[in-house]
Design brief:
The structure is a single chain. By secondary structure, the protein is α/β, with parallel strands linked by helices. The chain is built from five helices and 14 strands. The strands form three sheets. Strands 5-4-3-2-1-14 form a six-stranded mixed β-sheet. Strands 6-7-8-9-12-13 form a six-stranded mixed β-sheet, with helices on one face. It has a two-stranded antiparallel ribbon with strand order 10-11. Strand 6 and strand 7 form a beta hairpin. Helix 1 runs parallel beside helix 2. It is globular. It starts with 5 loop residues before the first strand and ends with a helix.
């Protein structure tokens, strides 16, 4: 791996339902393993500490709350960046927010889900975001979207125009629509000549059934890493030079 390449780890896990403390204890080992395997960043699925639930606002907290504070400590202890989403306190309703924390425990950026999952009435219980989440990971310029955002190409075009080279998508994408999952990840990558990293959950909850399938598509839209259905740490190396070459040639 050369100096400009960034190694990422997609942590395809099942949450311990509505129990952030037990889930955070569970992922401690995964974070340690990812760091020891040379990953610069470990990414978790949507609302991974509680499990995604469009109707639940339990465990809502601000960015200085319990969940993010533990993630900051884990990032510092393991010298690895962590990307995770949580229910962020907000009036009149919480936001579905992702935070990216660097290896020193500093919050680099946050992103609140812009396109709430209206078929599941997430919009009735959460407030939508309005700002991009852009950060640097080594030599790579990165952006964040969340799950249902994948269906909205305009968001990804805006990110591309700001210079983003890799998008990270924490998700709770159900088994019934897995063909759409791959379609949108590869399309968004190919359209914008960028890496798109989809991190999905697995297992069955009171909301739906999930079958993993976390994957990374490169700037040509080719899938370069893919998980199965079980819990898994999926590693992939991202090279910003590949993005720049693709954009120059096109």
């Amino acid at each position: 791996m050369d100096d400009n390449t960034v190694r990422i780890c997609s942590a395809q896990i099942a949450s311990i339902w509505d129990d952030p403390d037990r889930t955070l204890k569970k992922v401690d080992l995964f974070i340690c393993h990812a760091a020891q395997s040379g990953a610069d960043l470990i990414c978790f699925p949507e609302q991974f500490t509680t499990g995604w639930d469009p109707a639940s606002t339990n465990h809502s907290e601000d960015v200085n709350g319990h969940i993010v504070s533990i993630l900051r400590d884990l990032a510092k202890e393991n010298h690895i960046a962590i990307l995770g989403t949580f229910r962020e306190s907000h009036y009149p309703a919480p936001k579905n927010t992702a935070a990216i924390i660097d290896g020193n425990g500093k919050i680099l950026a946050t992103y609140a889900k812009i396109h709430l999952f209206t078929p599941g009435e997430e919009n009735n219980h959460f407030s939508s975001g309005s700002e991009l989440g852009v950060f640097r990971l080594g030599s790579l310029t990165c952006g964040i979207a969340i799950c249902y955002d994948l269906r909205f190409p305009e968001l990804f075009r805006i990110y591309a125009k700001t210079g983003v080279e890799a998008m990270f998508i924490p998700s709770a994408w159900p088994s019934a629509r897995m063909s759409h999952w791959e379609l949108f990840i590869t399309a968004r990558a190919c359209e914008n000549q960028m890496y798109v990293v989809g991190i999905n959950t697995t297992g069955t909850t009171s909301v739906d059934r999930y079958s993993g399938g976390s994957m990374t598509a490169d700037p040509t839209g080719s899938v370069i890493s893919r998980a199965g259905q079980a819990e898994q740490l999926l590693f992939c190396d991202l090279d910003p030079a590949v993005v720049r070459t693709a954009r120059t040639s096109f």
